[in-house]
Amino acid sequence: MPEGKPEVLFEVIEKEGMLIQKGRIKVPYTWAAGKIASRFLIGLRDEKRIYGIRCPECKTVFVPPKKLCHQCLAQMSEWVELGDEGILETFTIVRYSEPAIHPVETPLAYGIIKLKGADTGMVHLIGEADLTQLKEGLRMKAVFREERKGNYLDIKYFKPV
Amino acid sequence: MERAAIIGIGQTKYEKEKDGIFAELVYEATSRALDDAGMKIKDIDNVVTISNDFWDGRTISCMAVADAAGCHGKDASTVECDGAFGAFYGLMRVLSGYNTTLVVAHSKVSEGNPRIISNAAFDPIYERSLGLDAISSSALQARAYMKRFGITEEQCALVSVKNHKNARNNPYTQLPLDITVEDVMKSPKLADPIKLLDTSPITDGACAVIFAVEGEAKKWAKKPIWVKGVAHCTDAYRLGERDLTYSTALESAARKAYQMAGIANPSHEIDIAEVYDAFSYMELMWYEALGFCGKGDGGKLIESGKTQMGGELPVNPSGGVLSAHSVLVAGLARIAEAALQLRGEAGKRQVPGAKVALAHGINGVCAQQHCVWILASEK
User: Fold this and answer.
1) Residue A51 belongs to what domain range?
2) Mean pLDDT of B365-379
3) Is A94 near chain B, with CB under 8 Å?
4) Contacts of B240 in chain A (CB under 8 A)
5) I need a surface site. Which of A118, B107, B206, B231 has the fewest CB within 10 A?
6) Residue A6 lies in a domain
7) What residues of chain B lie within 8 A of the CB of A148, using their CB?
C-alpha cells in the first residue's frame, strides 16, 4: 500500500437483516519527541546510557525525563546519568494476545522499575526471566538492543540480575 | 453555592453490540430524560454532549450527535471525558445563568477495539510502544495496591460477586450473574492478578441527565434531586510518577465534595454509593480514598458485608461498571443511578429510605482523574 494513498475498506456484513460496515481510520503522524525526550533517546541509542532529569525546586529525578515537573510546574534542565540497574516495584504477566499493539509475543511481562538514583518508576518490558519467579524487590538490569533507532524500545527489556 | 438539581433521567439498556447507530442511542436517552422530566426540547436552554472521536471512529463526532441530542438552534458544547466530568460542566452551566442543561453521553464500545484505543492513550514517544492498554496497566496498579496492603485476589473477587449479583435487580444493565469467588478465581487469567471476571464488559449505551437551577427545578414532573457537593482532582500522567497503591486524587476530590455537602463521616452519612469499578480491585481502592474505611482496609470492608445490599452502605446496587461498561457513559450512569435511588425509583435495586448518595467517575489510564458527586433528596 503506497504511503499517503487513502485505504478504502468498506466490507459489509449482514446480521439478522441489519447491515454492518467495516472500516478504519488510518492516519500517519509525525510526532515531535521534543528536546528533552530527544536527548534521552539519543543517550539510549548512541551511549547505551539512561539519563534522568532533576527538578530545580523539589529535586525529584524523573526518568524517562520530561520538560516540566508536574508538582512544581518548574522547567527542568539538569541531566542526571543513572545506572542501568534498579528495583522491580510491580509487574504483570499479560496472557492475551493483541498483535496490533504488543511488541513481542505473549505471554509477556511488564514491570515498573525504579532505577538507582531516580525518584520515578520506569515502565518497561521484562525479558530473560522465569515469569513464575518474578517478585517485587528484584534487582533488574536494562538490556539494550543491538540495533538502536532512537526510540523507547532501544531498551529491549529489563532482566533480573 | 446556588442550588441546582437533577430533574430528568434517561438511560438506554446497556448491551453488547446494540444494532442502532450511536446517534440513535443518544436520541433514546435524550427522549427518555425529557419524558421523565415532563419536558419538551424547547424547555432545554443548552446541551452538553459527551463523546470521544476514537470510540466513535469519527472525527468531531460531537457534531454527529447534535441532531439526536436536540442541539439544533441551541447553545451546545462537548466534553471529551467520562460523563461524571461532563455532568460537572453541565452543572456549571446552570449555575452560570442557564435555567436548564441537558447532558448526554453515549458510546458503542463494541464497534471499536478497546485495547488498541486505550493503548493510544499512552505517550507515543515513550510507553505506547510497549503495548500497554487499559487491562495491562490496571494489572500493574492492582498488583502494586494488593502487595502493599496485603489485599487478596479473593477479596477482589468478592466485589465481582457482589456487583454481578446486584445487577440481577437492574433491568438496564448487561451482565447479571450468579457467581462465586471460586468462579472468579477460575476465570481465565488476562494480566495477573486480573482475571476475566475481575474486568468490566464491552458495552454499548447512552445516558442523559437534565440539570436545573432551583427556581426552575420544581416546575417539572419529578421531585428534584439536589446537588450538595461535587469536586474533581487530577494525578500525574505517567504511571511511574504516581503512587499507584492509593489515590490521593480521589481522596482530595472526596474531601472537597464532602466539605461542600457538610459531610463529616461519609460511611455513616451516605446511604448509597455508585462508584466506577472498571476492575474489581478498583472498588476496594476507591472505598479507601473515599473514606469508607481506613487506608489498606478495602479488603476487610468488602468482607464485612457492609457494602452489599442490606448493608450499612450499599455500593453499586446497579451492578456497577463491572456489569455494564459503556465508556464515557459509565460515570453519568452512576449519577443517574444515584438520583434514581434518592427518588425511590430504583425498583428491585432500591436501597430503602436512601436520602444521601455518592456518585463517582474516572478518567484516564489507571484513573488519573476522579470526580465525586454528593446528591440528596432534601435541600
Assistant:
1) 34-160
2) 97
3) yes
4) 112, 114, 120-123
5) B231
6) no
7) none
